[in-house]
Automatic annotation (TrEMBL):
Coiled coil: none annotated. GO terms for cellular component: mitochondrion. It comes from the Eukaryota. Its main location: mitochondrion. Keywords: Mitochondrion. Pfam families: RRG7 (PF10356). It is found in: Mitochondrion. This is Restriction endonuclease type IV Mrr domain-containing protein. InterPro entries: RRG7 (IPR018828).
Length: 204
């Protein structure tokens, strides 16, 4: 059996990461990786409530978002299916992408860095100090042929800038562990309960 190519390995992990972000964190992202992607693998929106007390889903009968209650936060993600743990260089790279896109007409407001092998303490420390709102996720799955397996989150770190965006809305990221399986994950909570999807689903 032939070894999977680097492209196949990367695409498998991106597919795995996309499924997790859209199904668990309720983002509305799409895959954009490839030539000319500008360092972005996934791009889209994260529809979040404007303030505490909004009931999900906040959609009109037409299916369009009720923009007086929810707002789309532009979000980009980089997916790294590398054998070695990621160091601060990967965090600086994502910082650079955010800085480059900040001059665009519609810059992203949040960034997620997903690693198949985890992060060094130096990488987490750098992410803590960066002014860019950033979430780091260690997803050990997503190998070729295993993209649809249950997602385990081996680690999650987010910085003060990321919390500053979510906190005033009553939204927070929490680490979770399933009681039966013991599988670790993260969840989004809002007003003291697990957050549901507020905005439209991702395009198929």
């Amino acid at each position: 059996m032939a070894r999977p190519s680097p492209r196949d390995i990367g695409l498998a992990f991106e597919t795995h990461a996309l499924r997790f972000l859209n199904s668990t964190l309720h983002t509305s992202l799409a895959h954009v990786g490839g030539a000319g992607d500008g360092g972005v693998d996934l791009r889209g929106f994260w529809w979040l409530p404007r303030a505490p007390g909004v009931v999900a889903p906040a959609l009109r009968p037409s299916g369009l978002p009720y923009v007086r209650k929810i707002v789309p936060h532009r979000l980009i993600a980089q997916c790294k299916a590398e054998k070695r743990v990621l160091g601060p260089r990967a965090v600086r790279e994502l910082e650079g992408v955010m800085a480059h896109l900040s001059g665009k007409r519609a810059p992203p407001s949040l960034a997620v860095l997903l690693s198949q092998s985890g992060f060094t303490p130096a990488a987490m420390d750098h992410a803590t100090r960066t002014p860019a709102p950033m979430l780091l996720l260690h997803l050990p799955g997503g190998r070729v042929g295993d993209e649809e397996a249950d997602v385990e989150v081996a680690g999650a770190w987010w910085n003060a800038a990321f919390t500053a965006v979510l906190g005033p809305l009553g939204v927070e990221i929490r680490r979770e562990v399933a009681l039966r399986s013991g599988v670790a994950s993260v969840g989004v909570w809002y007003d003291g309960r697990r957050m549901e999807r507020f905005g439209p689903p991702p395009e198929q």
